[in-house]
Amino acid sequence: MKILGVETSCDETAAAVVEDGSRIISDVVASQIDIHARYGGIVPEIASRQHLLTIIPVISQAMTEVSWQDINGIAVTFGPGLAGSLLVGVNVAKAIALAKKLPITGVNHLEAHIYANWLDSSPAGEKGRVKFPCLCLVVSGGHSDLVLMKGHGQFEKLGQTLDDAAGEAFDKAARLLGLGYPGGPAIEQAARSGIPCLPLPRAWLKESHDFSFSGLKTALWHLVHKGGISVADAAASFQLAIVDVLVAKTIEAAKQLEVKQILLSGGVAANKILTQHFLANSPVPVLIPPPHLCTDNAAMVAACGYYHFQAGKISGYDLDVVPSLGLG
Fold first, then answer.
1. Pick from 265, 263, 262, 313: which is nearest to 293 by CA?
2. What's the CATH number of domain 2-116+293-310, 3.20.20.240, 3.40.50.10320, 3.60.15.10, 3.30.420.40?
3. Residues of the chain with CATH 3.30.420.40
4. pLDDT at 128
């Protein structure tokens, strides 16, 4: 079964064709990073207009390896994300489904990130298929969610960020340090020449699986405005503070719930220090998609869509966007 995936939840316009939920036939991503970098963050109106310009060329490029007769269904992200951006992908996907007489399924963007672990690749962690029950950590610019996955489509949210998501915290820290946008890669690059020696706090939130990074960001602000600190040391210290909390709280939950695996996903999962700490400390195998499948892409949407179709989850042409959609 070949599924066309469409992803426009934020600032990447993406389309991909995936066979049987795992084999990537095509994977095309048009990034808007250079456009939004001048503003220090994503401008929603600009993002949606750029999606309008690029989505048809992106889908056309993704379809160069197959014909429309080969496609068995369309999977499209309908939330969470920016409303204007989501509308572009959903409406184009519905139009194609209607014109080509194909079934369509709406996909939760967070669920799709998790399904990046089903795609054929060379993960940094254990190679092989996912084993249930597993613990999923989704860390990106807008989300830091800890979710128990008992089977396909069976999710129980255990914890989430109470304020800033990990990726959002990286963006704000990079702005404070004058490192540019996007913040995650900028912080990671600067941290390579630094020493994590600054006294930054960790919000452990005992007896809870939730996360909080707002206080960490505030502490960095005070250090920066006090002056006399190395940017590289500040970046390394901030990065380690986030990694320590994500790793410790996820591993603690994995032990309590006796899961068989930990699955990482989302843009922050591309951070090498984070993956190294997980692989060195986890008591159970860890699956980690390669960096290009951690960031937003349509292959993960198509993989997730495959399992939706297998379960008979077909959306109607009244499918609408849900910008605040949650998982579990």
1. 265
2. 3.30.420.40
3. 2-116+293-310, 125-288
4. 55
Ranges of beta strands (E only) in the chain are 2-7, 12-19, 23-31, 73-79, 104-108, 134-139, 144-151, 154-159, 261-265, 286-287
Alpha carbon distances (Å) from 50 to 60, 199, 298: 16, 42, 17
C-alpha distances in Å from residue 275, one per residue of 130, 264, 279, 292, 293:
17, 8, 6, 14, 14
pLDDT, tens digit, for every residue of 94-147?
Answer: 999 999 999 999 999 999 999 999 998 644 444 458 999 999 999 998 899 999
So what's the pLDDT on residue 125? 46
State the pTM of this model. 0.95
**For 125-288, which CATH superfamily applies?**
ATPase, nucleotide binding domain (3.30.420.40)
Decide: helix, strand or coil at residue 315. strand
Quick one: pLDDT at residue 127?
A: 46
Beta strand 144-151 pairing with 154-159 = antiparallel
* pLDDT band at 220; cut points 50, 70, 90: very high
pLDDT, average across residues 203-215: 96
Both tokens of 308, joined, read: 């939706």
Burial of 63-95, coded b for 16+ CB within 10 Å and e otherwise, reads: beeeeeeebebbbbbbbbbbebbbbbbbbbbbe
